[in-house]
């Protein structure tokens, strides 16, 4: 199915074309209408199914560029994944006036990250531990976040990030859109989803094509 069945910002449509994304993958086709409609969505699909663009298009479509506030937070289990996600979001955002995507992950010095935070951002992509570090130092304010994405939620839980996720979620508005993506959907994730999401739309795809 073509992306043109969705009502996306024209810049996003252009960027998808440039990226060679001619049609939606199954998880994109099934989740994007609900995501763009502001609903909470659980997306389950194995690696390579195109989950990043599903939530990336959702948060970019909704973003108010003129409000230079952190409006979206994407949590990933590792720095490598966070870097990949930030890269894809930046590519999707090309040409949309000055969208600032900042990555906040561990394993790199705090100082430059604090400097970048002082300059501001629209979208933060990061790992839970480092996000908490910035919250505790009061360098990061999540009061204006209206979209939270938990990417690779199963891996985050496996890595023991649940208490961190609870901490971070307490720092942002309850009224928000929450998108949860995962390759698997074990009991523990179902329980978390029940606690943090509101009537989520569940999308499950078996394979990429
Ligand atoms: P996942 O997060 O589900 O593992 P990714 O978002 O990393 O998957 O996407 C996997 C690959 O598919 C990436 O190389 C990405 O550029 C590509 N891709 C995503 N959506 C599309 C699309 N609609 N058309 C073509 N390629 C796509
Ligand atoms: Mg992914």
UniProtKB/TrEMBL annotation:
Residues 32-203 form the Helicase ATP-binding domain. One of its GO terms (cellular component) is cytosol. GO terms for molecular function: ATP binding; ATP hydrolysis activity; nucleic acid binding; RNA helicase activity. One of its GO terms (biological process) is ribosome assembly. Residues 1-29 form the DEAD-box RNA helicase Q domain. Keywords: ATP-binding, Cytoplasm, Helicase, Hydrolase, Nucleotide-binding. A motif (Q motif) lies at residues 1-29. Belongs to the DEAD box helicase family. This is DEAD-box ATP-dependent RNA helicase RhpA. It comes from Shewanella hanedai (Alteromonas hanedai). The lineage of its organism: Bacteria, Pseudomonadati, Pseudomonadota, Gammaproteobacteria, Alteromonadales.
């Amino acid at each position: 199915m073509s992306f043109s069945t969705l009502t996306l910002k024209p810049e996003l449509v252009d960027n998808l074309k440039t990226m060679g994304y001619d049609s939606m993958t199954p998880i994109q086709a099934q989740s994007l209408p609900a995501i763009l409609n502001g609903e909470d969505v659980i997306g389950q699909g194995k690696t390579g199914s195109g989950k990043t663009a599903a939530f990336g298009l959702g948060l970019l479509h909704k973003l108010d560029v003129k409000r230079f506030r952190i409006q979206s937070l994407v949590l990933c289990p590792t720095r490598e994944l966070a870097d990949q996600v930030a890269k894809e979001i930046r590519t999707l955002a090309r040409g949309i006036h000055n969208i600032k995507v900042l990555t906040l992950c561990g394993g790199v010095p705090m100082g430059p990250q604090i400097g970048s935070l002082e300059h501001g951002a629209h979208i933060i992509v990061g790992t839970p531990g480092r996000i908490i570090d910035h919250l505790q130092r009061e360098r990061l304010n999540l009061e204006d976040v209206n979209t939270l994405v938990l990417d690779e939620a199963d891996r985050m839980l496996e890595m023991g990030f649940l208490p961190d996720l609870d901490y971070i979620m307490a720092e942002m508005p309850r009224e928000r859109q929450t998108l949860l993506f995962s390759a698997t959907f074990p009991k523990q994730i179902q329980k978390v989803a029940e606690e943090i999401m509101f009537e989520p739309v569940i999308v499950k795809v078996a394979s990429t094509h």
